[in-house]
Amino acid sequence: MSTPALFTPLTLRGVTLKNRIAVSPMCQYSATDGVPNDWHFVHLGRFAIGGAGLVMVEATAVEPEGRISHGCLGLWNDEQQAQMARIVAFLKSQGAVPAIQIGHAGRKASTHRPFEGGGPITAENAKPGEAPWRTVAPSAIPFADGYATPHALTVDEIKVLTGRFVDSAKRALAAGFEVLEIHGAHGYLLTEFLSPISNQRTDEYGGGINGRMRFLLETVEAVRAVWPADKPLFVRLSTVDGTPGGWGIEDSVVLGRELKARGVDVVDSSSGGLTPSMEAANKPAPLYQTPYADQVRREAGIATMAVGLITQPQEAEAIIAEGRADLVAIGRAFLENPNWPQDAKAALDPEHIGDEAWPAATGYAVKAIKGIRKKFELA
User: Fold this and answer.
1) Under 8 Å between Cβ of 188 and 105
2) Which of 24, 42, 178, 288 keeps 20 to 30 A from 280, CA to CA?
3) What is residue 378's predicted lDDT score, i.e. its pLDDT?
4) Above 90 in pLDDT, residue 105?
């Protein structure tokens, strides 16, 4: 039996992943002043121990006002960078490629943590020491009822924010990350510029698709200029808004071609998040976003990562084996089972599973328990 496609290596520029399994960036809302702590170290480290080829740190803000909540990570100062470096070193020690997603929450910033009720922070409902802050967007259009009207960015302010992405990219490099992802999805700032629903500007950053893509493309160009040529650059996109009159898959194909021309290696193909109505129009179901990754890959000629309720090894294997995407990003299934890759290997290639994929500290014990199980199964 040949090696399952899911467990074949993938080389992107000068970086080789040992398999096609990525840990999707999953916000933990557990930082203080944007600084990673022991929770983040253990949360991410367990996935590397479990055998993931790529482990991506959650959405990390390029400035304080770019955080979704007071509990979100950031990468704008030395303390944050130092704690990121600690996590990176451990991920590498376990054979995983460390990645980080950098972004800005735009008009969806300044909210409560989801496990504390979510929704916008106001002067009336703010927790002590966690005041609301001004949100920004391409146009002065709130995300939803109850959200503050965001400040419409000036052209000069847009240029400053591109610089913030560059600064965070430099810090990510200094911390040792091997893969960088720019967050252009889920209704956050870069997404807001892409969609005609949230971008009603009449200057060079609005209007037709070329104007609406400008901020993202300029940011990609600026980041690619400081991110080494031998390291991959990803961009996460909401390939469809899921909202009538918004951004569609055909737009993402056009954007995918432009991203490839500017040195982007992988489009991380997600969807939705621009408006609260998205879920009704793009209802989550197993593999519901995989067709987007497939279409962008085929029509834009760029590698893609499929994400979205991929939970079963056989599903992930089919996506890679059929050429529908180059990577699969696992999120919630990893939270339920940090050893998802090990179990997937056993399910897909039972004749060749052994303890070699496990860390030395646990592999000998895994081998022993397998031997005991086999003995009693045969008895």
Assistant:
1) yes
2) 24
3) 56
4) yes
Average model confidence (pLDDT) for the chain? 94
Residue whose tokens read 């898959």: 249
Please check whether residue 107 is in contact with residue 141, taking contact to mean a CB–CB distance below 8 angstroms: yes
Q: Which of 334, 338, 331 is nearest to 362 (CA)?
A: 338
Residue 302: strand, helix, or coil: coil
Q: Confirm whether 188 is a catalytic residue.
A: yes
Alpha carbon distance 108, 120 (integer Å) = 8
Q: Nearest to residue 134, comparing CAs of 32, 203, 64, 33?
A: 64
- Determine contact, residues 75/60, Cβ cutoff 8 Å: yes
Marked catalytic residue, from 188, 288, 292, 364: 188
Percentages of the chain per state (helix, strand, coil), in multiples of 5: 40, 15, 45
pLDDT digits (tens, 9 = 90+) for 324-361: 999 999 999 999 999 999 999 999 988 766 555 778 88
* Residue 347 Cα distances to 1, 220, 291, 340, 341, angstroms: 13, 39, 24, 10, 10
